[in-house]
């Protein structure tokens, strides 16, 4: 059956056929025909954002919390350029999103037409792939391909640039089933020999550790379930990157906590001292490795990753397994069982004893206060009061983000949305809206710093309009805290431009948006205020005034190995050399 | 000079250099990359090299299968063995890339480049140029009373040495295609 329709209608039809329920977008001249089609149907919900960057982060939040592809729609020129930060964010964090952008009509491309930008050129380096569609007959197929590419292999953002005349013209619609999803079929199953090699190494290892990452979340719920089973079967300790939190439950008995620059002492020392490192869906990011030559010098390393270019990119490994986590874990677990594999019991017992000693250091301890709210305390209370609830957390970027990762516990995957690779301030508020749109009845909290939050605060309007009762939990230290911390440690306490002045009155700001705000300064008021926020039926801005000069520990200074970790302010004198200062 | 105006000796700006200060072996590899001939595919491949700080010594591209819209990009690149492996993995994961072949490791290959050289001169120099052209099997494809255009096909090294000889004899201008390469045998 061939169906003739305009390009604009095709866009809506193709989205419907891809199962899209919601689009985050902002109209403009070059996408008016598509908006006209959106107006005339009720299957796809459109969330009108306040800035296109917000639309992309919402699509990311939606995608990360559901495992589906997020969709955004923007106009040509400034609409598309405003999407660039979000696209880059999604690329670095492997988030599957499809962005549709309007373009000037084909016959005007290259003439510096009104709101013309070389969107394909600008977004080529920040998308997994992008397409300019010049022919209405190819539009539907391209959209179907875009969904395929975004969600298969290592997920990522894609963009389709659609000139206005292509939207107006009539062409033949193509169903998803007949679309040529190209030759792009990344390998899912791991090499059996490599999997067998891994299993053999696991049987003899004395000091093994699972180092897991965002790839487990990307792979889907089954991957997390298999990971849990594998950890239980082996009894090995497990740590995770910032991006992988929740794949293994924080309450699980083998959990060491997050690793890396602001990771836990026990997790980092386990990585440093292990004899077998099993990397599952993590990418040896520099927040993890520290100084490369000193990175876990005595271990054999296995790396499971769907992207062959991730393997041996930064760290040379002994066994590389290219494949999807769920597929590889399933095979490995089956082999583990069929071989009747046993672990090195004595070695492992000694290893756990050593780990227990590291855990006894209680690296997350901090000096409490009855007078001011310590940010760590605020998060401990938030955790205690929301534990067990149907809860999703997003964050902005900075100290508060690291404290959230340290002090909140994640029991399930897809419950934790944060900008890890790009570290985009302004991510959290729109992401929280995207999550809330996908989970209207859940508790969605954005743990924010005041500086980050201001970067996309216009999206409170979106939250109001679409009744997304997102809770903005702002740890307000009136500082660009993470920057201030680095200046304290690296730049002789010269606090150049790292404070937040002329801040708005957040309570009045909430009122101005038509929602509720609260300011808390006294630790004694914290619990009641948090409960008020949770119970409030609508968006909420929580101005939590915290200690202004708190530093985030543990910290591995840039350019240092894992075993040279700072645990508190007392450790910080002159620790970072000139070489480390060059690194970010 | 390569067709992209990137100097042969241009140092890489890759982060890999930061990671490994005691500069290990630098190898030269010829890669054949089979791609979907879609708009922007060349920009995408070149963008990968510049964004990640890889070297391009030579690059050629043309559609080789019109019915299936396949193009063949031949890239000559240099780097440490680790970097070469990364380049291949990075190329292979691009959506419009079908195949990546490393002709340098996949066995013997033939490499050819075509060059056109304009040599101006009279008298003894002119005769000498013609004599050398014969030795190098370069063809005259244009001649006036005071100039020749030579066409020659060969390895880049052979073209380099012919060009060196022509320089004192009046080499004025040169156009080169960059390397095309195929593996030998089946
Ligand atoms: C201020 C700040 C501080 C930070 N500090 C820390 C820190 O202390 N600790 C920390 O961990 N991070 C920290 N980060 C985050 C850090 O920058 C990286 O984003 C993070 O470490 C990367 O996580 P990952 O290795 O899990 O990789 P991701 O970016 O999540 O990449 C996932 C990997 O899995 C692969 N993959 C994807 N899908 C699949 C699949 N289906 N099957 C198999 N493989 C798949 C991908 O190819 C990729 O290699 C910080 C960020 C900021 C902004
Ligand atoms: C868009 C953007 N600009 C600059 C930075 C650099 N940066 C990282 S953390 C930070 C300070 C964040 O301050 P705040 O949001 O108040 O959080 P805090 O660290 O105080 O918890 C800055 C400026 C960034 N990550 N993103």
From TrEMBL, chain A:
EC main class here is transferase
Q: Which InterPro entries match?
A: Acetolactate_synth_lsu, AHAS_TPP, DHS-like_NAD/FAD-binding_dom, THDP-binding, Thiamin_PyroP_enz_cen_dom, Thiamin_PyroP_enz_TPP-bd_dom, TPP_enz, TPP_enzyme_TPP-bd
Single GO BP term: L-valine biosynthetic process
Task: Tell me its cofactors.
Answer: Mg(2+); thiamine diphosphate
| GO CC entries | acetolactate synthase complex
Q: Pfam families, per this entry? A: TPP_enzyme_C, TPP_enzyme_M, TPP_enzyme_N
Tree of life domain: Bacteria
Stretches assigned to the Thiamine pyrophosphate enzyme central domain: 195-331
Q: Which named protein is this? A: Acetolactate synthase
Which species expresses this protein natively?
Answer: Cypionkella aquatica
List the top taxonomic levels of the source.
Bacteria, Pseudomonadati, Pseudomonadota, Alphaproteobacteria, Rhodobacterales
From TrEMBL, chain B:
Pfam (any one): ALS_ss_C
Protein's organism:
Cypionkella aquatica
- Keyword Amino-acid biosynthesis in annotation: yes
GO CC entries: cytosol
Q: What does this protein do?
A: Catalyzes the conversion of 2 pyruvate molecules into acetolactate in the first common step of the biosynthetic pathway of the branched-amino acids such as leucine, isoleucine, and valine.
Q: Which GO terms describe its biological process?
A: isoleucine biosynthetic process; L-valine biosynthetic process
Q: Which reaction does it catalyse?
A: 2 pyruvate + H(+) = (2S)-2-acetolactate + CO2
Q: Using the record's annotation, list all stretches that form the ACT domain.
A: 30-105
The pathway where this protein functions is: Amino-acid biosynthesis; L-valine biosynthesis; L-valine from pyruvate: step 1/4; Amino-acid biosynthesis; L-isoleucine biosynthesis; L-isoleucine from 2-oxobutanoate: step 1/4
Q: InterPro entries per the record?
A: Acetalactate_synth_ssu (IPR004789), Acetolactate_synth/TF_NikR_C (IPR027271), Acetolactate_synth_ssu_C (IPR019455), ACT-like_dom_sf (IPR045865), ACT_dom (IPR002912), AHAS_ACT (IPR039557), AHAS_small-like_ACT (IPR054480)
Q: Name one GO molecular function term.
A: acetolactate synthase activity
Alphabetized UniProt keyword annotations: Amino-acid biosynthesis, Branched-chain amino acid biosynthesis, Transferase
- Protein name per its UniProtKB record: Acetolactate synthase small subunit
User: Per the UniProt record, which EC number(s) apply here?
Assistant: 2.2.1.6
- Subunit and interaction comment: Dimer of large and small chains.
């Amino acid at each position: 059956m061939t169906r003739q329709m305009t390009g604009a209608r095709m866009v809506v039809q193709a989205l419907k056929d891809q199962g899209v329920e919601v689009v985050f977008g902002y109209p403009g001249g070059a996408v008016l025909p598509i908006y006209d089609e959106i107006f005339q149907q009720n299957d796809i919900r459109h969330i009108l954002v306040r800035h296109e960057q917000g639309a992309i982060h919402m699509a990311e939040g939606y995608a990360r919390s559901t495992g589906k592809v997020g969709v955004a729609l923007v106009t040509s020129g400034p609409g598309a350029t405003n999407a660039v930060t979000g696209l880059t964010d999604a690329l670095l964090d492997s988030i599957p999103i499809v962005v549709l952008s309007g373009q000037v009509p084909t016959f005007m491309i290259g003439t510096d037409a009104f709101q013309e930008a070389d969107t394909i050129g600008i977004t080529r380096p920040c998308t997994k792939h992008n397409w300019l569609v010049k022919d209405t007959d190819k539009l539907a197929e391209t959209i179907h391909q875009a969904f395929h590419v975004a969600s298969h292999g290592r997920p990522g953002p894609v963009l389709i640039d659609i000139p206005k005349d292509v939207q107006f013209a009539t062409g033949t619609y193509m169903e998803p089933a007949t679309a040529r999803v190209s030759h792009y079929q990344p390998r899912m199953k791991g090499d059996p020999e490599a999997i067998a090699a891994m299993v053999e190494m696991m049987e003899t290892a004395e000091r093994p550790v699972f180092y897991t990452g965002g790839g487990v979340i990307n792979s889907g719920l089954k991957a997390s379930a298999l990971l849990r089973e594998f950890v239980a079967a082996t009894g090995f300790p497990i740590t995770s990157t910032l991006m992988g939190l929740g794949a293994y439950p924080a309450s699980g008995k083998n959990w060491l906590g997050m690793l890396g620059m602001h990771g836990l002492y026990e997790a980092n020392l386990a990585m440093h001292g292990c004899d077998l490192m099993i990397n599952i869906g993590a990418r040896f990011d520099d927040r993890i490795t520290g100084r490369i030559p000193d990175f876990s010098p005595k271990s054999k390393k296995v790396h499971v990753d769907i992207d062959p270019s991730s393997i041996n990119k930064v760290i040379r490994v002994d066994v590389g397994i290219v494949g999807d986590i769920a597929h590889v874990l399933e095979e490995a677990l089956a082999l583990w069982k069929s071989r009747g594999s046993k672990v090195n019991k004595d070695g492992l017992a000694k290893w756990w004893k050593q780990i227990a000693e590291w855990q006894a250091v209680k690296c997350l301890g901090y000096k409490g206060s009855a007078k001011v709210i310590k940010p760590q305390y605020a998060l401990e209370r938030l955790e205690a009061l929301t534990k067990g609830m149907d809860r999703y957390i997003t964050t902005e970027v900075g100290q508060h983000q690291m404290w959230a990762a340290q002090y909140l516990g994640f029991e399930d995957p897809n419950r934790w949305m944060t900008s890890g690779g790009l570290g985009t301030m302004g991510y959290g508020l729109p992401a929280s809206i995207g999550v809330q749109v996908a989970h209207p009845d859940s508790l969605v909290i954005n743990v924010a710093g005041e500086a980050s939050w201001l970067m996309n605060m216009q999206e409170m309007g979106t939250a109001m309009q679409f009744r997304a009762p997102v809770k903005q939990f702002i740890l307000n230290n009136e500082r660009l805290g993470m920057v201030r911390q680095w200046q304290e440690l690296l730049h002789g306490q010269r606090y150049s431009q790292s404070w937040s002045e002329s801040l708005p009155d957040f309570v009045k700001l909430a009122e101005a948006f038509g929602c509720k705000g609260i300011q808390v300064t006294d630790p004694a008021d914290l619990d009641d205020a948090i409960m008020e926020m949770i119970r409030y039926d609508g968006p909420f801005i929580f101005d939590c005034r915290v200690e202004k000069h708190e530093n985030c520990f543990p910290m591995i200074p840039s350019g240092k190995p894992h075993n040279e970790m700072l645990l508190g302010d007392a450790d910080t004198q002159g620790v970072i050399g000139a070489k480390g200062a060059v690194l970010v | 000079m390569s067709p992209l105006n990137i100097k042969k000796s241009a140092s890489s700006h890759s982060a890999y250099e930061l990671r490994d200060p005691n500069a290990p072996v630098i190898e030269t590899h010829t890669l054949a990359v089979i791609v979907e001939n879609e708009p922007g595919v060349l920009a995408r491949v070149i963008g990968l090299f510049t964004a990640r700080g890889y070297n391009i010594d030579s690059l050629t591209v043309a559609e080789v299968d019109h019915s299936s819209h396949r193009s063949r990009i031949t890239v000559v690149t240099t780097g440490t063995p680790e970097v070469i492996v990364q380049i291949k993995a990075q190329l292979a994961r691009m959506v419009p890339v079908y195949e990546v072949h490393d002709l340098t490791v996949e066995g013997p290959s033939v490499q050819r480049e075509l060059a056109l050289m304009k040599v101006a001169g009279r008298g003894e120099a002119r005769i000498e140029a013609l004599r050398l052209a014969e030795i190098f099997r370069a063809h005259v494809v244009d001649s006036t009373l005071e100039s020749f255009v030579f066409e020659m096909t060969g390895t880049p090294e052979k073209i380099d040495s012919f060009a060196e000889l022509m320089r004192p004899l009046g080499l004025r201008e040169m156009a080169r295609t960059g390397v095309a390469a195929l593996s030998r045998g089946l």
